[in-house]
Amino acid sequence: MTTAVKAGGPAVPGPPAGKRKSVTGTRKVIAAGFLLPALVLLGALVVYPIGYSVYRSFFDQAGGSFAGVDNYTEIFTDDAIFTAVKNNAVWVVVAPTVSTALGLIFAVLTERVRWGTAFKLVVFMPMAISMLAAGIIFRLVYEQNPERGVANAVWVGVHDTFAESAGFPRARPLPVHPLEPGGGGSYITKEPVTAGTPVPLPLVGVPPAKMPSDARPAKAAEPGDGRITGTAWLDFTRGGGGKPNSIDTRELGLKGLTVEAVKDGKVVAEARAGADGVFTLPASAEGALLRLPAANFKEPYNGVNWLGPSLVTPAIIGSYVWMWAGFAMVLIAAGLASVPRELLEAARVDGASEWQVFRKVTVPLLAPVLAVVLVTLMINVLKIFDLVYIIAPGSAQDDANVLALQLYRSSFGTDSHPGIGSAIAVLLLLLVIPVMFFNIRRMRRESRR
């Protein structure tokens, strides 16, 4: 028995050394009683499902016959499932790396601007959006139609700024018009042209709403002095009326239509129709055939098929980065706030440039924080499901497939195979365990410093 001595008083006998209670005086039995409900829930919701998944992964589709490792073999031999494995590898390498790099850049740069806090708030806001909502947002962003999809609206706008687009797709002449197919999507006049005789070039097939906004009512061309003149117009009167090959008052000129004069297969002159459809060619076009090249009628540039087989995975990774770069930025900014400023100032005093300070001082000091962010995102990416399921259209879902999505399809899809679904679940667990082990070791190493 030990003895406790009070200040200014007699010694008070204490409990035996071998029967000393904990600091809180809690008995182990009571502690176990409080832990028991949590342990029961943990066993029922985590341990048992893991064990049963491992067991079920060794049986066939019906679950009545032992299949050995056949289900695991099929993961790497079935084309659809192996595509999911490859896509998961791309996700694990690209998404966490890009998100962490952007978070680092944002965290460092926002320290130097007065409105850095507002910028961090804006970048972090996507984290408040669920994966379902983000998937719906980006499904619309990547819409193929530039009138609905933001990504293609921007892309088409930039393209059309530097490359001229066709003005009249699907425009064509009628059989009664003085034009006939010239090969390759072009149209050519049936007879050679002569100076002093205006050439009519009527077309149909252009919706009035698609006509140039500055097109004016078509005007009959005046005979040119030794030159070839003519009018290109939309030979269609809204509401009916009008005559073929005749310019009516409500018919518009085909502004910008390219007209070529061709002799012996060579282009000798070229002109564009004005707002009223009138064009003029030099005297060298005398006796030539007039051709409307196919470039006038090709479909307008419609942007990039972001959700096609080749780009669907990078497009979905882009939506993930949009959501999680803010998370990385906030954690890295918190770590950056604890970096000793005197070290950075000392490096600058020694003559280091800002890039050298960033690369050789800031990044090494932030290495533990960067590791936390990177590992957290890797674990998160391994189980990515929502974005791929929502954003990828049915035609490209096989190309965007990932393990979590394939797990859902194999377990609950129309061609469900619980054995393969369980094998995929076990594979995901095996992929996550090394990352978790690395993270736990790093945390213990940090706690011992």
Describe the fold and architecture.
There is one protein chain. This protein has about 450 residues and is α+β, with helices and mostly antiparallel strands. It folds into two domains: about 70-150 and about 305-445, MetI-like (MetI-like fold); about 180-295, no CATH class. Helix content is about 45%, strand content about 10%. The chain has helices at about 30-55, 70-75, 80-110, 115-125, 130-140, 150-160, 310-335, 340-350, 355-365, 365-380, 385-390, 405-410, 420-445; strands at about 5, 10-15, 180-185, 185-190, 200-205, 230-235, 260-265, 265-270, 280, 290. The protein has a five-stranded antiparallel sheet, with no helix packed on it. A hairpin with a 2-residue loop joins strand 7 and strand 8. Helix 1 packs across helix 13, helix 3 packs parallel to helix 7 (about 310-335) and helix 8 (about 340-350) packs antiparallel against helix 9. The longest helix has about 30 residues, at about 80-110. The protein is elongated.
Model regions low in confidence, pLDDT < 50 over at least 5 residues: none
Sketch the topology as an H/E string, one letter per element: EEHHHHHHEEEEEEEEHHHHHHH
Taken from the alpha-carbon principal axes, the silhouette is elongated
**CATH homologous superfamily descriptor of the largest domain:** MetI-like
- N- and C-termini, Cα separation: 38 Å
Number of helices: 13
Report the CATH C-level class of the largest domain: Mainly Alpha
Query: What is the second-level CATH architecture of the largest domain?
Result: Orthogonal Bundle
Major sheet, described briefly?
Answer: 5 strands, antiparallel
CATH topology of the largest domain: MetI-like fold
